Amino acid sequence: MNTKDNLSDVSDDFISEENDGNLSLQKGQTFETFEEVEKYLKQYCEQKGFEYRKRRVEYDNDNIVHKRTYECTKAAQYQPRKDKDPEKHRQRSSGSIGCQWHLNVTCPKSTEVIKISTIVDEHNHPLNPNIMIHGVQFRQVSEEMKSDILEYLTAVPTMGAQTIYRLLTKKYPDIYIHRKNLYNAIQEVRRCK
C-alpha cells in the first residue's frame, strides 16, 4: 500500500472527526510532521481540558527526531528535597500528582510517517473546561496576532493597548487574550519594528 494514499485517508478521517467536534488520539494514527502532531495535540488538549508538555525527545544518528514523548503537566510525583529544618520552609502544594496520561509518537526511517505508538488516556485529576483561560500553554499570543499588532501599529503608531485589545477580541472572538500577555506582545513588536 502506498504511504501517500495512507496519509490522505488518515487526513480525511481527521477532517470528519473535526467536523463532529470530537477529536481523538488513537494508536496507529499518523501525521506528516511533528508540528502537525503538536497542533493537533494542542486542539485535543483544549477540547479535553488539560495541558501537555514534551517529556523526552530521541534523535537518530543524523540528528533527526525519531521519537517524542508528551505527558500531562500534572505527571510525575513531587519529591521534597528539604534537608534543613522543615519549620523554616513554607508549606506549598505541588501540581505534580502522578497523572498517567502520556503519548509516544515515533517516526521510523523505513516509512518516514509519524505515528502514535502508545497512548495512555487516563487522568487522575479533574479536567478543566476553562483551560483556555487558565492554562499557561494557551495564553501565548500567536504569530498571527503579532502580525496584526504590527499592522495596527504601522497604521497608527500611537495606538494604545486598549484599542489593540478591542480589535483583536473582535477578530478572534474564540480566543481569550490575557492583557498582560498582550502588553508583552506589543512591546516585543515595537522592539522588532
UniProtKB/TrEMBL annotation:
FAR1 domain boundaries: 40-129
Segments traversing the membrane: none
Chain intervals with Acidic residues compositional bias: 10-20
InterPro entries, per the entry: FAR1_DNA_bnd_dom (IPR004330)
Positions of the UniProt region annotated as Disordered: 1-21, 75-95
Source domain of life: Eukaryota
Pfam families the UniProt entry points to: FAR1
Name of the protein this chain belongs to: FAR1 domain-containing protein
